[in-house]
Design a protein that fits this description.
alpha+beta, 8-stranded antiparallel sheet, two-stranded antiparallel ribbon, about 20% strand
Length: about 425
């Protein structure tokens, strides 16, 4: 029955693994059953009622995630908003908890509407990565602070506002022992959290990568090096001064060394804030998407670059731009090359039609660079990160297929270039 409902074998897992993961997940997040009633009761709400509501909401949310989406994710009320609800809206602003709860209900309806219309995704993508990271860190520190307070690991201090718990005196047998147990539980929580992350990574992302690449390595927090990216020589509409990235993949594809990751190229502008009387910086994303680097299989006399922009950029690059025979290709791509003959060598009529076709399926601007050292760079400006859940991926198997399609887009171009190279050689041998 479990196999029919959750497709365990298809997702490279079994009942024992999922049961242990479930227990671990429960132990990891069970703190919400104590913390949420404790925080919300400060607003005047009944702590026992909040406890029951927290447990029921967590059960229903987790069950729906399992039965409808087939994701091994547990859902529960989030930390942060509950503290804002009690300490700011009710205690500081003076609103009743009933009125504040009505505001939360209205906010939920608005949130659902934004999600259904893709506005939420657009807003999320518009937020700079630095702000996303800062928000996550800020909420994490706040939750940690609340948890340390409730565990009595930190206590009030008249001189420094907060201080650490003194594990001595009359309170040791009660508060002190509880604090020590909290430390032990926190250590186990950290270990189990890493296990969960590793399990999810291995079962979803790593298994998909293994289907496409050989000897594959995956690092969610790594990326292609600055030196490698700077060597590409692609022409972007604006300059960039810094680089970021994630989801680094390294492996081999049909004997070719391959690197792949999310990449962000950032244009930094300095300006003087007269009101604050100080220099500040603004960031603008020149490129956000996926970047692949692989062996091309042949040495070139000079480099050849394809960049989105076509005729718009051609005026800026008159000296090294190459006019191709395909008018549609020229409209979309700027071709720059040190040797025009080499551009014609690589970009045959068939190859140009193929690149145009693949560019139409990419979902964004496409950039290619054929380098002198035998390296090929393929970049797609999708405006989003790799290995993200799309709105069409409702189940794990659908998510896997989505990732496979995104990877195959890159590998199909590599395959076509290798076939084209073979055909070219045969034609010239005749």
């Amino acid at each position: 029955m479990l196999e029919n409902v959750f497709h365990l074998k298809e997702n490279h897992t079994d009942a024992k693994t999922e049961i242990m993961a479930g227990i671990t997940t429960f132990m990891t997040m069970a703190y919400i059953l104590a913390v949420n009633p404790n925080i919300l009761s400060a607003s005047g709400m009944d702590s026992e009622a909040v406890l029951i509501a927290t447990a029921l909401a967590s059960f229903v949310g987790t069950a729906l995630m399992a039965l409808l989406a087939n994701y091994p994710f547990a859902l529960a009320p989030g930390m942060g908003l509950n503290a804002y609800f009690s300490y700011t809206v009710v205690l500081t602003m003076g609103y009743s908890w009933q009125l504040a709860l009505m505001a939360v209900f209205v906010e939920g309806i608005i949130f659902i509407a934004l999600s259904l219309t893709n506005v939420r995704e657009g807003i999320f993508n518009a937020i700079p990565m630095t702000l996303k990271s800062a928000v996550s860190v800020g909420i994490g520190l706040f939750v940690a602070f609340v948890g340390l307070q409730n565990a009595k690991l930190i206590v009030n201090s008249d001189s420094t506002l907060v201080t650490y718990q003194h594990f001595k005196g009359e309170t040791f047998h009660s508060i002190g022992v509880g604090a020590i147990l909290a430390l032990v539980g926190g250590y186990q929580l950290a270990k189990n959290t890493e296990k969960i992350k590793k399990l999810l990574s291995e079962n979803i992302v790593s298994s998909v990568l293994s289907e496409v690449f050989d000897d594959v390595e995956y690092n969610a927090f790594g990326r292609i090096s600055d030196k490698t990216l700077e060597s590409a020589g692609m022409v972007f509409p604006f300059s960039h001064e810094s680089m970021r990235g994630s989801d680094y993949v390294k492996g081999t594809y049909k004997g070719l060394n391959v690197e792949l990751s999310d990449v962000e190229l950032i244009h930094v502008t300095d300006y003087y804030d007269e009101e604050l009387e100080q220099w500040k910086q603004t960031e603008e994303k020149v490129f956000q998407g996926q970047w692949l680097v692989c062996d091309f299989g042949k040495e070139l006399v000079g480099e050849v670059h394809l960049s989105e922009g076509g005729r718009k950029l051609r005026k800026q690059h008159k000296n090294n731009s190459v006019e191709m025979e395909n008018a549609a290709f020229n409209d979309r791509f700027l071709v720059t090359a040190e040797n025009a003959e080499e551009a014609y060598y690589i970009l045959t009529p068939h190859m140009m039609e193929y690149i145009l076709s693949m560019a139409g399926k990419s979902g964004g601007d496409v950039y290619l660079s054929f380098l002198r050292g035998g390296k090929l760079h393929i970049a797609v400006q999708t405006g989003k990160d790799f290995f993200e859940l799309g709105k069409s991926a409702a189940k794990v198997d659908e998510l896997r297929q989505k990732f496979l399609r995104e990877l195959r887009w890159f590998t199909d171009i590599i395959d076509e270039l290798r076939v084209e190279e073979t055909l070219y050689k045969k034609e010239n041998d005749v």
